[in-house]
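Researcher: Structure for this, please.
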Amino acid sequence: MKKGVKDVRKSINQRKKMRGTAGKNSTKQILSSSLPQEEEKHGYFPVFTDDSGPSKPSDGRITGFAIKGVLSAMLFLSTALLFQTDSELLSAPKEWTANTLTEEFPFASVNQWYQETFGAPMAISSSQSPDQGEALAFPVNGSVSETFQVNGTGIKLAPEQETAVSALQGGVVTFAGNDQETGKTVVVQHADNSETVYGNLSSIDVHLYQFINRGQKLGIFTPDTNNKNVYFAIEKNNSYVDPVQVIQVDDSE
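Model: Predicted structure, token format:
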């Protein structure tokens, strides 16, 4: 009996040595020699794995999802950096991107409908509350240094000192950045599908797609030797109108 046990153990040790040697030659020999013999069926469990090389994912779809996630994050970050950069080289792609995202979509009209339906704005970005009874006023206090008849698109206002530039009406910011002609510029879309343009600012205090109220500060203007005028324009139905006439009509009412 003892001799039989010794023979079994000796046989097991010999097969283990054979598996170790075969592992250096081929995986196929490992699998064939690893099959349990009769005396190994109780208490011994061979492992049928090949540890000779790195493991590979069982499904290539995991890699595909990871690549899509990385590309989406890169696209989002690239767009964010584009709108945060003031370089003139990026002004053209920035303008194209802004027009693509905002063209013909009535942000301000949707916001007004939302307020009328649900009693609250879609987004609260200011502690000010709009005063619908307040008369329209120019975005800054100052004399008109260039009229609409001379400019053709808007007017220029000349403040005597540093001043805040305020929104003519409530709406949604559809552009906030550098413009080739008017420098730091803010464009606000209103519920009546009109837009107001505020150019030549010294600094901008609002961001793209921000909901604003009438009279809310859009930025700061500081007059200096190179910049003495704030550009202001009103566009409606794809054509510019004289801001002086619009504000005078509103005051007369």
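Researcher: Any notable elements?
Model: The chain is about 35% helix and 20% strand. Residues 61-84 form the longest helix (24 residues).
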